[in-house]
Structure formats: structure tokens, C-alpha cells
Amino acid sequence: MTKIRSTTVLAVKHNGSISIGADGQATMGNTVAKSNVKKIRKLQDGKIVTGFAGSTADAFTLLERFDEKLGAYGGNMKRAAIELAKDWRMDRYLRKLESMLIVVDKDDILILSGTGDVLEPDNGIAAIGSGSMYAQAAAQALVKHGKDLNSKEIVEESLNIAADICIYTNHNLIIEQIS
Fold first, then answer.
1. What is the pLDDT, as a whole number, of residue 96?
2. Cα distances (angstroms) measured from residue 87 to each of 73, 96, 97
3. Would the CA dihedral through 88, 89, 95, 101 be positive or negative?
4. Is 7 annotated as catalytic?
């Protein structure tokens, strides 16, 4: 059975704010299955925002587990991410999940992967999904040369550039800014 997947998620920390955004495309094989999937989710009353790439059902399982970890650790995003990564790596069921998450709060950006990684990008830019390298390259250029831009503007323009290049990324964007 063909899995539903593909997307581009990008988070940028720039000029005192963090924004995260994603396109809305889900593909089944090489066919667009849906064009307006909401891959950005707010947790902890909007204090933490997540974006996911990969298998949608797997991502929802991880989002539920991450939300549970946030509750267990008083909303501490880094601690919850580390504990989720440990479970993800150790649990036989979770290990089979094919998804990645970017999680952000007002201070930090983290990438969570099924290999047990919790990565904090050095340059304040994180990208996952099929169009991630296009979006990340665009964001790096905009951060370097767009000193007057805010993080939301950089995320929007970078995702649009990725959508122009990547056939698995579209222009139906959802972007959240955290100040």
C-alpha cells in the first residue's frame, strides 16, 4: 500500500522571533492526494508549535506522544523532546514510525528524528521534508542578505521558492510566528 507523505517544513529564528511554516501538499506515490493538509500544530496554548513531515498517521502518533511529554515535564520543550527521542529510539512500535518533527518555542528550534536525534540548528534554520534543502538554502540566503526581514517573511518566501522547485511542495502555506 502506498503511503501518504511529502511536504516541506521550515523554521527560522531571525531578528528576535521564530517562525515555522509548512506547505499543504500530501502525495500518494507521485500523485497529489490533498493540497491543503495542516502540518503545523500549536501545543501548550500556542507556546510551542510543531511541524511534521513524513507519514501523516505516524506524525500524529508522535505529536500525541510529544504533547504527553510536554505535560509530564511542565512544558519544558527540550526535556520533552529528549524524552520523546529516547522512547522513539527504544520502543519497537515507535521505531517503525516514518516521520520527523520540528518543534519551536519562543527561544529554540529543535528537529526530532526517529533515530533518536534531537538537533538544535547552529544557524537558526531548520528544515525537513522533500523540499527541505530548497527551503533551507533560500532561508540561509535571506537571513544573510535580508537583515530588515522578519522570520515570518523569510519562512514565507523560502517556502514559496521551494514550492517553485520541488514537485512535492505547494504554495498552500501555513505559517506561525512566535515572538
1. 64
2. 15, 12, 12
3. positive
4. yes
Q: Apex CA 8: angle with CA 107 and CA 135, to 5°?
A: 75
pLDDT at 97: 64
**pLDDT tens sequence across 148-170:** 999 999 999 999 999 999 999 99
**Type and span of the H or E element at 133:** helix 132-145
Asked if residue 72 lies in contact with residue 29, where contact means CB atoms within 8 angstroms, the answer is no
CA distance 25 to 173: 9
CA-CA-CA-CA dihedral for 150, 156, 160, 163, to nearest 10: 130
Evaluate if residue 50 carries a pLDDT over 90.
yes
Predicted local distance difference test score (pLDDT) of residue 92: 63
Share of the chain above pLDDT 70, in %: 92
Of 1, 10, 4, 3, which is closest to residue 129 (Cα–Cα)? 10
Rounded Cα distance between 21 and 161, Å, is 13
Q: How many CA atoms lie within 13 A of 46 on its CB side?
A: 6
Q: pTM for this one?
A: 0.93
**Phi, psi dihedral angles at 171 (to 5 degrees):** -95, 10
Active-site annotation holder among 2, 7, 27, 56: 7
